[in-house]
Amino acid sequence: LGEWERWLAVKRSDYWSVLRTEEELNRKRSCEVAMAFLTGLSIDSRRLRIGSSRCEPRRRVAMHAKALQALIFDCDGVLADTERDAHRVAFNLAFEENELNTVWSESRYGKLLEVGGGKERMTAHFNEVGWPEGYTTGESQQELVKKLHLRKTELFGKLISEGKIPLRPGVQSLADSASKKGLPIAVCSTSNEKAVAQIVTMMGPQLASSIEIFAGDIVPKKKPSPDIYNLATEKLNLDPAATVVIEDSYIGLQAAKDAGMNCIVTKSTYTVDEDFARADRVVDDLDSGAVTLESLEALVSNE
Q1: How far lies 233's CA from each of 71, 187, 196, 238, in Å?
Q2: Exposure string (b/e) for 114-123, b if CB count within 10 Å is 16 or more?
Q3: Which end of the chain is more exposed for a tag (fewer CB within 10 A), N or C?
Q4: Which long-range contacts (CB under 8 A, 24 or more apart) does 299-303 make?
Q5: Of the listed 14, 44, 76, 285, which one is catalytic?
Q6: Quick check: helix, strand or coil at residue 195?
Q7: How big, in percent rounded to 5, are the helix, strand and coil portions of the chain?
Q8: Distance between CA 263 and CA 243 in Å, rounded?
Q9: Per-residue pLDDT tens for 96-118?
């Protein structure tokens, strides 16, 4: 061999000797150099997988804060404190018009609110205390409930149109802020869709026209089932974790959280003593609780 070949052989021998004695360190360094040469990137050898025969840098996961995608309100007890002074009153008027010996007191109605939905509420009541005379079959009982609920909805609408029930504090300002930012707004309620729409119009015709309503019998199972919030997620193409729900009741809170959404509870007349342990925040009302669009964005981004 010539001098050049002998020198090169020695160098090669030295190189492989080093690899054998310091195999792990040199493998990482060789990979780093090769990758840097090919990609023009500076690769920190500490990020290479130790003990691997391949040059596999660990993926750097980009942590991006979530952005608020939508604001969803419950209706009764959230937009307006309608249960005691509107829904209950309308039910009692419907009972009276149909000559039924039934009057729901404030305390009785509060207990019945544990059942989601007006028709379901009446059914639960009559199943417990007994059905009016002449309504002995399932079919006749169902027809009575439908008739009463239809009339109750008309009477409820009259109470709302007369302006007797105001929006709760902070509702208008929060909805206005979300609308100005182009954020989708929806209402998810177990109440009749027509009744919900009447309350939504209290926020003004322009804003009301942009609010999606999911209400009544649109899903087979009502709150505390998450069905109605799952439907909103699907229809509005939402990431539940980037959505904030405003609820006022235990059953509504369960529905929102089981749908994977953030939930702020604003306590109402009948729900002040309910269990809200799963809530992200609990306030007396949106205004006094300083629930602003900025606070909702912060809640979502910190998830």
Answers
A1: 11, 12, 19, 5
A2: ebbbbbebbb
A3: N
A4: 299/244, 299/262, 299/264, 300/66, 300/67, 300/68, 300/69, 300/241, 300/242, 300/243, 300/244, 300/262, 301/65, 301/66, 301/67, 301/68, 302/65, 303/66, 303/241, 303/242, 303/262
A5: 76
A6: helix
A7: 50, 10, 40
A8: 9
A9: 999 999 999 999 999 999 898 99
Asked if 85 is an active-site residue, the reply is: no
Contact 112, 104 (CB under 8 A): yes
Q: Which two tokens stand for residue 67?
A: 């952005």
Residue with tokens 């990482």: 28
Cβ-based burial of 9 (10 A; exposed 0-12, middle 13-18, buried ≥19): exposed
**What whole-number distance in Å separates Cα of residue 281 and Cα of residue 244?**
11
d(CA 28, CA 44) in angstroms, rounded, equals 10
What is the token pair recorded at 138?
A: 């399932």
pLDDT in tens, 134-190: 999 999 999 999 999 999 999 999 999 888 899 999 999 999 999 999 999 999 999
3-state secondary structure (DSSP) of residue 169: coil
Among the listed residues 44, 74, 85, 239, the single catalytic one is 74
Calpha distance 155→187 (Å, rounded): 21
Rounded to 10 degrees, the C-alpha dihedral 249/254/257/258 comes to -160
Report d(CA 144, CA 139) in Å as an integer: 9
Active site residue 14: no
Beta strands in the chain (DSSP E): 70-73, 185-189, 212-215, 243-247, 262-266, 281-283
Find where tokens 């439907």 sit: 231
Task: Record the tokens describing residue 25, joined without a space.
Answer: 């360190």
Query: pTM for this one?
Result: 0.72
Cis ω before 226 (30° cut-off from 0): no
